[in-house]
Amino acid sequence: MTQEITTTQKVAIVTGGGSGLGYAIAQKLVQENVKTIIIGRDAQKLQNAKEAFGDNCFTVSFDLSNLSGIPALVQELAKEHGTLDILVNNAGINQKKPLTEVTDEDFQQIIQTNLTAVFALSREVAKIMIAQGSGSIINISSMAAQYGIPKVVSYSAAKTGVEGMTRAMAVDLSPLGIRVNCVAPGFIETDMSAKALNNDPERKNKVLSRTPMGKLGKPSDVAEAVYFFASDASGYITGTVLPVDGGNSIGF
């Protein structure tokens, strides 16, 4: 009779895990038997996700723009769950405004949530991962970091920063056993994006015409890419930005 080898269950944090891409990512991790902690601002969305995902899902209601609260939050999660193996920095906010109408406060708000909070959370989780000698951090970028998109200057700046930070973090952390990668979704069919594109046929046609695969992606497409980076299947990959975009970033 062969003896089964038991492996310790991995623990993941997914920010913005209550809806959209974060929901799909958390769902995939839970399905793969990863203990998944979803962090978000909307307690009701988090609760709905937990009810859908079951006992492998844990929720934390927290606003990541509260930078000073992040170190204590991470310590508490590490103590409660014993390990932190995977961090998915997915939470973000967007704002569409002509460049000349973006105030300093607007710009700083987007940078704080989409870039500074990603750094602060990664830094604290990295301390836990360094102590255990392993981990995988996955950042979520955007097509806004691949080429110019109108009326999203602060979002573009933040996401471009995320891609640069991915490479810098990978150089610092990979010698310590922690891989850092980034997924850059193209136009993905979420409730929000589908509604926006369906209300703007001209924009929808433009999106599809420059996407060689000729269709929008599904949230599960992004989730599969994130899981690849979270798993041992990508054990020799670090510092990369992977577009999951149907070819949109190289389309014409």
The secondary-structure element order is EHEHEHEHEHEHHHE
Mean of residue pLDDT? 95
Rounded to an integer, what's the Rg over CA atoms?
Answer: 18 Å
Strand content: 15-25%
Q: What is the topology, as strand order, of the major beta sheet?
A: 3-2-1-4-5-6-7
The helicity comes to 40-55%
What is the CATH topology descriptor? Rossmann fold
CATH class: Alpha Beta
SS field, number of helical segments: 8
Question: What would you call the structural class?
Answer: alpha/beta
CATH superfamily caption? NAD(P)-binding Rossmann-like Domain
Number of domains: 1
Unreliable spans are none
Defining key terms:
alpha/beta; Rossmann fold; globular
Any overview of this molecule?
The protein is α/β, with parallel strands linked by helices and 252 residues long. 45% of the residues lie in helices and 15% in strands. It has one domain: NAD(P)-binding Rossmann-like Domain (Rossmann fold). It has a seven-stranded parallel β-sheet with strand order 3-2-1-4-5-6-7, with helices on both faces. Helix 4 links the parallel strand 4 (86-89) and strand 5. Helix 1 crosses helix 8 (219-230).
How would you summarize the topology of this molecule?
Blueprint: E1 11-15, H1 20-31, E2 35-40, H2 43-53, E3 57-61, H3 70-81, E4 86-89, H4 104-132, E5 135-140, H5 153-173, E6 178-185, H6 191-198, H7 201-209, H8 219-230, E7 241-244
Parallel strand pairs: 1-2, 1-4, 2-3, 4-5, 5-6, 6-7
Enzyme class: oxidoreductase
Protein name: SDR family NAD(P)-dependent oxidoreductase
Family: Belongs to the short-chain dehydrogenases/reductases (SDR) family.
